[in-house]
């Protein structure tokens, strides 16, 4: 399940995406990854989400700069990451067969896929997610290959990818690619 939010600047993209992410975390019990382009934004958003989720017993983890390691604890509800750290976490989840534990990934500033220095990491991460979700290669928590997993047959339980941008010039091409 893929979604893209394209509104003009200051129109509420982040607010809408945050609601989608929190709803997904709360209703499915699966984790979310929030991908932000800059460390300063990651720090601000992680603090905000901790205040919202702590009363619900949900855990927010930070993966940016020197924050966070290579592992993602199973009790994580939301991982707030830079592009580089998110790519590393996705690699780790795929290696460990834990991608099915993820319910949603939200990518802010999706237009950065065209960035000459960091865009390739975003494109690589999204390609891996699309392939893994489409091929059903994630494994269940007991290590068994899920093959035609229930996540694939029930879109409400599978991985949801939400991208946000106010300045993406090629919206239709990116939407086609994500489908």
UniProtKB/TrEMBL annotation:
Q: Which UniProt keywords apply?
A: ATP-binding, Helicase, Hydrolase, Nucleotide-binding
Q: Which Pfam families does the record associate with it?
A: DEAD
Comp. bias regions, Low complexity: 137-150
User: Quick check: keyword Nucleotide-binding in the entry?
Assistant: yes
Q: What positions does the domain Helicase ATP-binding occupy?
A: 1-179
PROSITE patterns on file: HELICASE_ATP_BIND_1
Q: Where is this region: Disordered?
A: 137-156
Q: What molecular functions are annotated in GO for this chain? A: ATP binding; helicase activity; hydrolase activity; nucleic acid binding
Q: What is this protein called?
A: DNA polymerase theta-like
Q: What is the lineage of its organism?
A: Eukaryota, Viridiplantae, Streptophyta, Embryophyta, Tracheophyta
């Amino acid at each position: 399940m893929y979604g893209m939010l394209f509104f003009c600047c200051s129109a509420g993209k982040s607010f809408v995406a945050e609601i989608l992410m929190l709803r997904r975390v709360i209703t499915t019990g699966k984790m979310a990854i929030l991908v932000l382009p800059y460390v300063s934004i990651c720090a601000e958003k992680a603090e905000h989400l901790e205040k919202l989720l702590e009363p619900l017993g949900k855990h927010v983890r930070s993966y940016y700069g020197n924050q966070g390691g290579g592992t993602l604890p199973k009790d994580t509800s939301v991982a707030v990451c830079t592009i580089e750290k998110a790519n590393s976490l996705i690699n780790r989840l795929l290696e460990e067969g834990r991608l099915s534990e993820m319910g949603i990934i939200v990518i802010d500033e999706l237009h950065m896929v065209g960035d000459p220095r960091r865009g390739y990491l975003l494109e690589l991460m999204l390609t891996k997610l699309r392939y893994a979700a489409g091929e059903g290669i994630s494994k269940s928590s007991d290590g068994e290959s899920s093959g035609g997993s229930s996540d694939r047959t029930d879109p409400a339980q599978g991985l949801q990818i939400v991208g946000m941008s106010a300045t993406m010039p090629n919206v239709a091409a990116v939407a086609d690619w994500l489908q």
